[in-house]
C-alpha cells in the first residue's frame, strides 16, 4: 500500500526513553522501536516474541543500539513492554522527562507506547481522511483502549466495545458488543 503520512519520534526522545529504561531493574522491561515494518530491540525475549506470536507484528530483531539519525528520528513509535506495575512507574518517569516532546499512551496494561508529539490514532485517521477527501462526519471507528480515545472523538461516530476501558466508553458516542 501507499504511505500517506508519517512522523517519527525525535532522536532526543529515543535517547531519553533508552536512558529511562536503563534505570529499571534488568529484565523488567523490553524496549522496541518501530522503523516501519522493521521492529528493533536491544534483546529478544519473551515480551518481544509475544508481539509477533500473539499480536502478529513483524518479529523484532536484536540490534546493538537504537539508531540515532538526525533530530527527525527513524522510529515511528517506541514500545516499552513490562508488567502493569512497572510500566506505571516508567510512564510517570517518562511523562516528567519528556513533557510535551512525545505522546504517551497504552493499548494494554503491559504495553506503553511512545509516539511523536501530536501523534495518535485520531491524527492518523485525520491524515488518511484528508488524503481520501472523506469528511470525518462520514466515518465511524471502534475502540477499547486508551490509545483509541482521540480517534473515537475525531470521527463522526465513535463506538466503544463492551469490554472497553471506562474512559473509552466515556469518549464514545455509542457502545457495541465485546471484541473478545
From TrEMBL:
Q: Which Pfam families match?
A: Hydrolase_3
GO CC annotations? cytosol
Record GO terms (molecular function) = magnesium ion binding; phosphatase activity
**InterPro entries the UniProt entry points to:** HAD-like_sf, HAD-SF_hydro_IIB, HAD_sf
Origin: domain of life: Eukaryota
State the NCBIfam families in the record: HAD-SF-IIB
The record's annotation in PANTHER family points to: HAD SUPERFAMILY HYDROLASE-LIKE, TYPE 3, PHOSPHOSERINE PHOSPHATASE
The name this protein carries in UniProt is Uncharacterized protein
Origin species, per record, is Florenciella parvula
Provide the taxonomic classification. Eukaryota, Sar, Stramenopiles, Ochrophyta, Dictyochophyceae
